[in-house]
Design goal:
Helices cover 34% and strands 30% of the residues. The protein is an alpha+beta fold. Strands 1, 2, 3, 4, 5, 6, 7, 8, 9, 10, 11, 12 and 13 form a 13-stranded mixed beta sheet that branches. A hairpin with a 4-residue loop joins strand 3 and strand 4. Helix 4 packs across helix 5. The radius of gyration is 22 Å and the shape is globular.
């Protein structure tokens, strides 16, 4: 097919493609929660909270139709940098680990590549950026179609959940199994009460989420990267001297189908993770431990216990997403790559 077989319509709001978005996402068994319309509303809230970013980038929704068959189409959103004349297939802002294309099954990679060419023409774009792309077939197609494409691999880690909990524990290294036993022994020796609590969107508690946010901030204070002075100035002006919004402060969080799992020691939160289930997979957006209880390895106990019980929740894959931190491999994780691409 050639470019003349495709037509792109552009929109200012997701409501123009809302029906198709919901249909494609609901019918898919492979799209992550980050591809859902619900999650996009979170991303949109981060974008709308900015000042400079909204001036530099314009947000566009689109639908690409195949003239030969109206049932073959692709929908989605992208950002256009009006200063640098670049198109960005990316979440741009907010805690998102994957960007995925939403299309009918018959909308193949060749049509996606043709779409890029049309977008470049329509917006007179000098570059196209694709960030955190999962589809390896698309990545391969870009390598062969666009000879000047730059492709960088980003490591993600996930855990394939075995049939039963004994298989999972046996799959861990001897030292990790010993660390788990040691943690439980320490809790028993110190007469500590331990409890794992799972909550979902029906149990939303705004005050509790602010406490979880504060624990996240405290935990990450020492990890914060030193920003260049230009980045500091941009951030200051972008948020008008206010702190950037956190996920747990967004109104859109009320609409999310999330899973929050907490490990409590003596009724105090020792660790938690926050994620989203879609079909038989869960993507984890945030893992936090309370340094006060670090002696008891709360993160290791929390995730290992959850995975041992995961088959009861019909889970087959536990995706710890971006990053190759050691604890992920200790828990039995393996790498699956995503890609940042510049055309």
């Amino acid at each position: 097919m050639n470019n003349k077989t495709l037509q792109i319509d552009y929109y200012d709001s997701f409501t123009s493609i809302e029906k198709e978005w919901e249909e494609i996402y609901s019918a898919s068994s492979s799209l992550s929660y980050f591809a859902s319309l619900n999650w996009h509303k979170v991303v949109l809230e981060f974008f709308c909270a900015t000042h400079l970013t909204k001036r530099i980038f314009s947000l566009h929704y689109y639908k690409v139709n195949c003239a030969a068959n109206p049932n073959v189409f692709m929908i989605g959103f992208f950002f256009f940098n009006k200063v640098k004349k670049s198109v960005h297939f990316s979440h741009l802002l907010g805690p998102s680990d994957y960007y995925e294309f939403l299309s009918t099954e018959t909308f193949d990679n060749e049509l996606v590549l043709q779409t890029f060419s049309l977008l470049k023409h329509d917006f007179k774009a000098e570059k196209i950026f694709l960030n955190h792309i999962k589809d390896e077939t698309l990545v391969h197609a870009i390598k062969t179609k666009f000879q000047n494409a730059l492709v960088n691999e980003v490591s993600c880690v996930g855990i394939a959940i075995p049939e039963d909990k004994d298989m999972y524990i046996d799959s861990l290294s001897k030292s990790v199994r010993q660390n788990i036993r040691t943690a439980y022994n320490r809790l028993d020796r110190d007469n500590k009460n331990i409890k794992i609590i799972t909550t979902d969107a029906l149990s939303f508690n705004c005050k509790e989420f602010l406490k979880l946010r504060d624990l996240y901030f405290r935990r990450n204070t020492s990890k914060k990267q030193v920003l260049h002075w230009k980045s500091k100035c941009y951030q200051t002006l972008d948020y008008l001297f206010q702190r950037p919004k956190d996920l747990f402060e967004t109104k859109a969080l009320f609409t999310q189908n999330y899973t929050l799992v907490k490990l409590q020691i003596d009724n105090e939160i020792a660790a938690y993770f926050f994620g989203f289930k879609n079909n038989t997979s869960m993507v984890v957006n945030r893992v936090v431990i309370n340094d006060k209880f670090k002696f008891y390895s709360p993160g290791l106990l929390l995730i290992s216990a959850f995975i041992q019980a995961a088959k009861n929740a019909d889970l087959a894959y536990f995706d710890l997403t971006v990053g190759d931190e050691k604890y992920k491999f200790d828990l039995g994780g393996t790498i699956h790559p995503i890609f940042n691409i510049t055309i």
